[in-house]
């Protein structure tokens, strides 16, 4: 049965949304957080294991130093207070995909304390998101449900568990309640998540591929009558793994909760799940509070001690941050604010930069990635970087145009061939004979024929009326199968009509 929803505009007019995000970032270390088991995405199930990651009796965890350093770097980027002493705790809960049946996390003594992140919205507005903590923990394994629809637990007759991911290091970034967002709450959430993705990639601490589960978020949202009213009861939608999904989750939950409150009902504090197919959330279990997890310090792990000297060493290793990089590239490329924002919104900054590095102009790189390639990605419902074409390929197409070997039409056909798996641009051009007609004699003959076939247009051109020029160019293009250069055709026509 479909849940009742209020129109979004009505919901945010009547109620003040307060939301929070718990972002899980999987670190790209070579080994797990507490053991030397190798990490590899997509490996054979249950092959990346040690006695520690299996929780076998007598096995003892040892902290991965690289994971701690990665966490400190993220804490610095988020302006967090770095704790000199932090502690791991056991979070007790029934985890069917966690062999030891508890998670090793951080509770009252996290590595990274309070901080903030300023995010820029599409119209240039900057919104500050307050950070409560960014703590270190290990991930659970992965359940696969068999026999149900789309791998869901509903209707499944049995489940399989893969422990490869169990023990992989995570950083969980927890925001404070985010107030004052109003109707822009979904937009702010999306911008914040993209900023986190860009930061961890710049730091080199995570691949941040949401489709691979490297990065995901729990979305908390509650409504209240006004900004001075007490916080409402929140729902928590678990493990949303796309930017658009996070934005849609907030929109849906605001509409759902507003409809319940409008009828005098009460919001149930519960976990929910986002269903991409139905574009809706569905109820899960009643939400547990911290006391229910019975946290206590892990007796097998000593406290983590971070010296001020070590923090300074890591601070000196910090790379250029995304916002600084964007401003630098904008200046180098000569892009307007709108042009840069279009590139950022298309998630094409890395691709454009790599294409320019491969020899293309910034304008040409932007044109391809935000034009033909963006349309192709949308048609296939994939990201730009998932398309089977590289920045080097795009730069090569641009060079072929600059060399006069391809016109725009042939360049698009060449790119289509690359996307179809026919090889590199040069190979596609050679295979189909796409190269622009460079034989002056053949081109002149085509122009003569076009003028002879269209004497009325030829007379207009001779009299100085240049409007019909397109018809002659079109006729020449047809005769040469689109392989003529329009500028060369125009030049020849002008020479011939002047006689």
UniProtKB/TrEMBL annotation:
SUPFAM superfamilies: GatB/YqeY motif, Glutamine synthetase/guanido kinase. The keyword Transferase applies. One of its GO terms (biological process) is translation. It is an enzyme of class 6 (ligase). Gene3D superfamilies: 1.10.10.410. Residues 350-497 form the Asn/Gln amidotransferase domain. The keyword Phosphoprotein does not apply. Its EC number is 6.3.5.-. Keywords: ATP-binding, Ligase, Nucleotide-binding, Protein biosynthesis, Transferase. Belongs to the GatB/GatE family. GatB subfamily. This is Aspartyl/glutamyl-tRNA(Asn/Gln) amidotransferase subunit B. It comes from Bifidobacterium aemilianum. The gene is gatB.
């Amino acid at each position: 049965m479909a849940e009742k929803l209020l129109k979004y505009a009505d919901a945010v007019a009547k109620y003040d949304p307060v939301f929070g995000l718990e972002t899980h970032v999987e670190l790209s270390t070579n080994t797990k957080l507490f053991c030397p088991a190798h990490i590899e995405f997509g490996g054979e199930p249950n092959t990346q294991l040690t006695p520690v990651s299996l929780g076998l009796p007598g096995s003892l965890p040892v902290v991965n130093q690289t994971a701690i350093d990665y966490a400190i770097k993220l804490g610095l980027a988020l302006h967090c207070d770095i704790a000199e002493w932090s502690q791991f705790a056991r979070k007790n809960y029934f985890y069917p995909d966690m062999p030891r049946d508890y998670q090793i996390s951080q509770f009252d003594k996290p590595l990274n304390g309070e901080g903030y992140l300023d995010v820029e919205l599409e119209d240039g507005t900057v919104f500050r998101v307050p950070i409560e903590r960014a703590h270190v923990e290990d991930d659970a394994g992965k359940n696969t449900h068999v026999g149900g629809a789309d791998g869901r637990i509903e209707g499944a007759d049995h489940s399989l568990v893969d422990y490869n991911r169990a023990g992989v290091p995570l950083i969980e970034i927890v925001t404070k309640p985010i107030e004052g967002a109003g109707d822009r709450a979904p937009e702010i959430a999306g911008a914040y998540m993209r900023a986190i993705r860009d930061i961890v990639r710049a730091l080199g601490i995570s691949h941040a591929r949401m489709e691979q589960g490297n990065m995901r978020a729990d979305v908390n949202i509650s409504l209240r009558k006004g900004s001075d009213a007490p916080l409402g009861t929140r729902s928590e939608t678990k493990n949303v793994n796309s930017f658009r999904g996070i934005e849609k989750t907030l929109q849906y939950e605001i509409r759902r909760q507003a409809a319940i409150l409008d009828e005098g009902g009460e919001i149930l504090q519960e976990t929910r799940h986002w269903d991409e197919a139905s574009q809706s959330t569905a109820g899960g279990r009643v939400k547990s509070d911290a006391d229910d997890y019975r946290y206590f310090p892990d007796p097998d792990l000593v406290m983590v001690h971070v010296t001020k000297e070590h923090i300074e060493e890591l601070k000196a290793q910090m790379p250029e941050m995304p916002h600084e990089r964007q401003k630098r590239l904008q200046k180098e490329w000569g892009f307007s604010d709108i042009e840069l924002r279009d590139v950022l919104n298309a998630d094409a900054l890395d691709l454009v930069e790599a294409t320019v590095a491969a020899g293309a102009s910034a304008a040409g790189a932007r044109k391809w990635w935000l034009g033909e390639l963006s349309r192709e990605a949308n048609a296939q419902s994939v990201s730009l970087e998932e398309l089977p074409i590289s920045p080097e390929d795009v730069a090569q197409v641009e060079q072929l145009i600059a060399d006069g070997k391809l016109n725009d039409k042939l360049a698009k056909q060449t790119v289509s061939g690359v996307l179809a798996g026919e090889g590199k641009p040069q190979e596609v051009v050679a295979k189909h004979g796409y190269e622009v007609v460079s034989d002056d004699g053949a081109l002149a003959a085509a122009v003569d024929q076009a003028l002879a076939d269209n004497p009325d247009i030829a007379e207009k051109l001779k009299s100085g009326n240049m409007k019909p020029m397109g018809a002659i160019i079109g006729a020449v293009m047809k005769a040469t199968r689109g392989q003529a250069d329009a500028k060369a055709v125009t030049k020849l026509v002008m020479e011939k009509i002047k006689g």
